[in-house]
Amino acid sequence: MRSIKITALLLAALLCIPLLAACANNGPGVNTRPQGQGGSADVGNFAQGDFDNEDFRFLYIKHSDIGKDYYGGNYLDAESLTGATIEDAVYNRNMAVEEKYKVNISQRVEISGDPAAILQTFYMSGDFIFDVIYGWGYKLGSCIPENYFADFSTLPHIDLTKDYWSPSAIEDLSINGKLYLCINDISMNKLEWADFLFYNKQLSEDYNVESTYGTFYDLVTEGKWTLDTYLKVLSHVSNDLDGDGQITRDDVYGIVDGAGNGMVIGTACGMDLTTKNDDGSYSLNYYNEKTLDIANKVYEIYSNSKYVKDYEELGQNADTTGYTDQWEYFRSFFARDHALFCSGSAYITSEFRNMDSDYGILPLPKYDENQANYRHTVSSLASIFALPSTYRNDVSTASPERTGMILEYMAYKSQEVLLPQYYDTLLKGQRLDSEQDQAMLDTIRDTIRYEFADMMGLEDIAKNCAAIYTKPTTASSTFKRNENKLQKTLDDFYTETLLLGSKEESK
């Protein structure tokens, strides 16, 4: 296994090649050269193959190489055993795959905010050397209409009904039976970047929160952790510590929240940006009476800085010295007992392990007790997998059969080797102190979903939905003004994707 890192700067010159401009809107063609000679007879649950110690390479497109590895994670390759929990699990998983299929798993890391440009460069260079692509979900989603990706559901030797292929992601991200983006247990991102709540147990005690409203864990278990209860709790905690007549970042308040508009709460309450129709198409679904009710309730609390501090307010004239990045600084106000809640995900549990006060985790609230399940959406920035629409020309064994065999077994071994180390050893064993918090994590894990429009990079839809939460009094006029344009955006994306499927079937 080996990692190769180059910078996007080295590729920038290639983008100037006139040929790219002529082909930019058409995407790459499908490589129809003969398939490799790897074995294809299934033995047990997994196909047999011997690929002559050739590379199986991931293209990992990172957004930035500054600070933490947000939304990606070191889940693809590891050089050796180091004693680190996750890295060693990755190493052991890859060794099992390499030994079974006689391949060398590697990755190449590109730093780029524009995956489309990176992909176009590699496709048109005539030197495409990757089997799988890995990068931010919405960034790859926006590339789908350019014919950069193949359909996962056409791969031989994979079983998308298995848990390690995340059936909920397949349901939410399939486009009329086609699956151009997928997440599986090769990466822990479906767990690491699902939104939920942290709460400060000391502040809860100091301000008599649970003695007033009920124990959080019991409320969740009994299905009573609802929007109304959450907002009451959130507005219960506000204290002007320095007596200056204002609630500033150094006082005590309800929550530290990234966007500060509560839209993630609306999603948890059952509000989706789109709905899938019976014919496979999509319709806008983010504006209705229920959404407006949620938005009005949320806005009343989230627009009040006595209760909610967003990152923008916390960052004003801020000295972030001593912190890895500004986001860690923002969340430190929760860790330093200034906020009862902090919105976040499993990734940031590492930032709270040295808190003086104990912390716990909670699902996001339901709309009401009639809502069947809690809901937790994976961030559209979380890295996800895609298959290139062309096969490598430097490896004699490259083929759909080889890709299917290796990905299936790699995902299976990840569930067997990596997932327990991440979920049980790291999260439950090292970062969550109580059995109740571990049970909350199970609830969150069991209710993970994916927002289609977000993951497909249809950003204007999410922006217009966010406007409902920031200005609910004008929500109706805002929606009506943009409805036709946004529905057309959705329709065009769907139609272009269907045409890709037709082209693939005709080849």
Here the CATH topology of the largest domain equals D-Maltodextrin-Binding Protein, domain 2
- The rounded Rg comes to 24 Å
Q: What percentage of the residues does DSSP assign to strands (E)?
A: 5-15%
SS-based class = alpha/beta
Main sheet properties: 6 strands, mixed
* CATH hierarchy, class of the largest domain: Alpha Beta
| Helical percentage | 40-55%
What is the fourth-level CATH superfamily of the largest domain? Periplasmic binding protein-like II
Mean pLDDT: 89
- What is the total domain count? 2
How would you describe what is shown here?
This protein has helices at residues 8-12, 18-23, 85-101, 115-125, 137-141, 167-173, 189-192, 201-206, 209-213, 216-221, 227-234, 263-268, 289-302, 311-314, 326-335, 400-431, 435-445, 452-455, 459-470, 475-506; strands spanning 3-7, 42-43, 46-47, 54-62, 103-111, 132-136, 149-150, 196-200, 253-257, 274-276, 282-284, 308-310, 339-344, 359-362, 376-377, 383-388, 448-449. It is of the alpha/beta class and 507 residues long. Helix 3 runs antiparallel to helix 16, helix 11 (227-234) runs parallel beside helix 13 and helix 19 (459-470) packs antiparallel against helix 20 (475-506). Strand 10 (274-276) and strand 11 (282-284) form a beta hairpin. It has two domains: 3-192 and 381-431, D-Maltodextrin-Binding Protein, domain 2 (3-Layer(aba) Sandwich), CATH 3.40.190; 196-377 and 444-497, Periplasmic binding protein-like II (D-Maltodextrin-Binding Protein, domain 2), CATH 3.40.190. The two termini are 35 Å apart. The radius of gyration is 24 Å and the shape is globular. The model is unreliable at 2-43 and 502-507 (pLDDT under 50).
